[in-house]
Amino acid sequence: MRTAEQAAPVPKTPAPPWRSARFRRFALAGLISATGSAMAPLALAYAVIGEGGGAGSLGLVLAVNTVPTIAFLLVGGVLADRMSRSRILLLGNLGAAAAQGALAVVVLTGTASTGSIAACGFLSGVAVAFTVPAGQGVVNQLVEPGQLQLANTLVRLPTNAVRVLGPVVGGLVVALCGPAWALAFDALTFLAAALLLHGLRLDAPVVAGGVLGDLRSGWSAFRSRTWLWTYTLTGTVVVAAWLAGYQMLGPVLAARQYSGASSWGLVQGAFALGLLAGGLVCLRWKPYRLLAVAVATSSLLFLPLTALGLALPLPVVLTASLIAGVGLDIAIVTWTTAFQLHVPEGELGRAAAFNSVGERCAIPLGYLLAALAAGIWSERQVLLVCAVVIVAASALNLCVRDVHRVNRAPRQ
Q1: CATH number for the domain running over 18-146+168-205
Q2: What's the mean pLDDT in 368-396?
Q3: pTM of the model
Q4: How far is CA 245 from CA 57, 236, 381, 390, 403, in A?
């Protein structure tokens, strides 16, 4: 006679993500498009410089690229909960390919101007507004809940490796062939990604009601989850302080305190290597309190700001940047996993859109506040203030009780 233990069914172990052809297709599409995107910023900067523009022209181009993303994100979030997310990603990648291809043509033919470059950037920004919310809800349609962290890590690991090598390769392409060819390559990678996504064919989430009604219900759901809106608010503050300190003031102090561009290149390389190492950590470490870990590890971004602000030796700055990169990638993987586990399928797009609006609004906010603060304090003092802001915002978020309740157990 069989015992109760013998009669009980053995839980089926979910297949690893790489066994799924659809997951491999999605991950490969992301890797290919990331390869071109890693070269694009450098190529864009030299395209602006090549047509006679300076810092003001480049700033205008970057702003025109950012504004439509913020403006259309909420629309993209609503559509991501009404349409097939794979179809949205397909159309978004085709739009980005068209924008980058047009930019490559005007640069190659010598007809580029700040206006034409900005127009192409505007179209790219619109494409991003639709692909970001859709992309957040794809992985959980491809793998089982217990495999989400592994799947998110596997998506990020190769793209992080590309971020280490991409700028170097992009610099060589721009130096040898000119920025137009790097931009053309970026367009081709978007096109190749679109072809891969064409075969993904994910079902659309079932959402009833009109667009405005969906937006209102999405906002109500977002606001009702304390852990979600407090994390978004904290992220806005942390991203603003990080970008203002690291991206804006970091190169200035590197030129003043170290050896300029070469030392800053090492700092950025150390940070990129940290991102790659953080992905490797996530292959092994599966913390239970996902959101608390995300908040704590993202706070490590204060380290390189502190090292630069205190004018510590370059090896210390490199070590701090490496650790910050490790922490940030762990934070991204654990946050993404928690988000996918604890937000219902039909709300993922809108919730991702509200979260992304908060973080992207931090970009101009951080630069503006840092510029104003630099008129009052020295650059080093501003960096230290940014470091304190990151620690304080993260500590306050860890005081929110709901943050510690968002764990590895999937939503019921």
Answers
A1: 1.20.1250
A2: 85
A3: 0.82
A4: 22, 14, 10, 11, 27
